[in-house]
Amino acid sequence: MNKYFSEIYFVDAIVKGIGQIMLQENKLTGLFFIIGLFVGNWQCAVAAIIGSAIGTITAALFQFNKNNINVGLYGFNSALVGIALISLFANILFVWVLIIIGAIVVALVHHIFIEKRIPGYTFPFIVVTWLLFFLIRQYTHIPPSDFVETKFVQNQFNIFFSVTNGFGQVMFQSNKLSGILFFIGVLLNSPAAALYGFIASLAGFLFSLMHVQSITQSELGLFGFNALLTAIVFSTTKKTTLLWVIAGSVITILIHVSLIHYSIFNWIGGVFTFPFVVGTWITLLIKKNCEKYFSATKNNLL
Predict the structure, then answer these.
(1) pLDDT tens for residues 254-287?
(2) Domain residues for 130?
(3) Lesser CB count within 10 Å: N end or C end of the chain?
(4) Same domain, 220 and 129
């Protein structure tokens, strides 16, 4: 497989870009994500591949850092723009044109974060998709997608699928098999990330139930995906990992549930992964200040 990827220009970076949606620099993880997307919605799979390809090609044309391109850093936000737009709006040519434009713009926005050494995560995707959603709704008559119009009927309650569905919702997928494939993809690259992500998704699911959120939305994983992304960020092998996984997940869940409860971003498409980004930024800031404090205290004692 490595030989196959190395012989085809950009394929390696494109597939890794899709894997980077869950912060996994692994082509096998990216392949599992692509398969999971095809299982859930083939249009999303095509949009993800096109988005990642456009973002990667844009970075190459602007001669951005080659290593950053090769590990997929310019693919994942662009892939998410494609998945989001084709999930939210009807499958027409103009939407695909907007996917290409959005993929280019988001790659350029993400480059600013990379150059400034700011962990932007999925923030470029969020901002560009919010803007495109607003413009589409205000100035076009493009109808919503069949996915948005679908009424989900609650089936037999299953906690396991409710948790793995959180992995699926990172890429707007409600298919149970898609969620499992995404989970396996993360597991193959980082068992710790998969485990912490699973636990965080479970925590988000349980918290949403305790606060009387829609049982259907909870079962679809809509309150787990942001928390699991935050958990993945902090899923290292250091001794303090669990502390920051818990802190980050709790902060993200509180932000997510609050935004949903007050319908803050409904007019521009929804919260997307905004709670993950803000929750992670807050946790990183707390972590940095704690490390400074304990370092200063240790030096004073010495």
Answers:
(1) 999 999 988 899 999 999 999 999 999 999 999 9
(2) 1-150
(3) C
(4) no
Beta carbons within 8 Å of 149's beta carbon, 6+ residues apart? none
Q: Are 252 and 227 in contact (CB under 8 A)?
A: yes
Q: Phi and psi (nearest 5°) for 13?
A: -65, -35
Domain count along the chain: 2
In our burial notation (b when 16+ CB lie closer than 10 A, e otherwise), range 61-89 reads eeebeeeebbbbbbbbbbbbbbbbbbbbb
Instruction: Please list, in sequence order, all residues whose beta carbon lies within 8 angstroms of the beta carbon of residue 24, skipping any fewer than 6 positions away.
Output: 30, 185, 186, 189, 190, 193
Token pair 């007050």 in the structure block, residue: 262
> Measured between alpha carbons, how far is 245 from 87 in angstroms, rounded to an integer?
30
Residue tagged 């993809």 (tokens): 185
pLDDT tens digits, residue range 133-183?
A: 999 999 999 999 987 656 555 555 688 999 999 999 999 999 999 999 999
